[in-house]
Amino acid sequence: MRAGIVSLVLAYILSQFFRAFLAVMTPYLAADLATTPQVLASASGYWFLAFALMQIPVGAALDRIGPRLTASALLICAALGAAIFARASGHGEIKFAMILIGIGCSPVLMASYYIFARSFSPAVFGTLAGMVIGIGSLGNLAASVPLSMAVEALGWRGTMWGLAAVTLATALAIWGLVRDPARVVHTAKGSLFDLLRLPQLWPILLMMAACYAPAAGLRGLWAGPYLADVFGADAAEIGRATFVMGLAMVAGNFAYGPLDRILGTRKWLVVGGNTLMLLCFVVLWQRPAQSEVLAIAMMAGIGFFGASFPMVMAHGRAFLPPHLVGRGVTLINLFGIGAAGLMQIATGSLHASVIATPSEAPFAALFLFYAGLIALGLLIYLTSKDRTD
Question: Which CATH number does the domain housing residue 375 bear?
């Protein structure tokens, strides 16, 4: 089982990489394919939307055929998408490639969560969930300084061909190493509608929609254009800044993991962390061009305090019936990833609609938008019922 989980974690590292790498690719794609921030926002949004839409069939597949076949077969689509990206000659191919990569990455985290939910004590689910995301966030780090170095050495096309090969090899490793947990025998098949009828889940689902998109959008898309347009940062500087934010995200995931058992609460841990992330966005909104050091510090704060995904997932997992665990965790994930995809597209339109005089004006609007989203999510989440198993 351990080797199988390791292979799934490797796949999740790739998933984290693919949702974040466009921020560093921005200057290279702009030079070769004349891409704009709005084009890349749409491409990134399509990744998230494809990923999100796959959560419903992925959940059913996890419950019916298990994580081994589900994860390995779909990850091959990500390898194909990376290969199409490497051969892209226009914006349409970039967007199509990102859709395929999103489909391919869609099952890997939920496959490991399914194994944890079925094979380990509920009390340690949050810790294990945080551990996987913490390790997987190395993909965020790889999509910063290491990516910029690889592109300088191999070109962006050569780098994407290498990623296609690594992704295919990881899919084969999952096929060979993952072992499916024993099936749950239950008289009622159950459905997605059974989950949607649980009133305890709704505040958690809406909080997931509000808490994941801001940090994911800033790290995966807007960090690069923001630093380049406002502070004149080059690709190397953007790589270093996103590396710092990526490190903060890794640390945040490991910090959140065990705190529910230490503090005896999940709800108030999520509330506290997201309130601090909200404050970081408010600072960026108020002082978007004060200094690059302040901007990077606030980005790091957003990465750290915005890493509540595994804790929100653990909170929701506590209310799921055993025979619907696969569909339950993917439903929660759907709200997080789906909202992130919609927000990528929405923020792309928002950025394009604001006159860039001064240059920080469009980004100040983005920061205010994200702050409002988090505030709305917190207001709804305050009505949730706490549960710590």
Answer: 1.20.1250.20
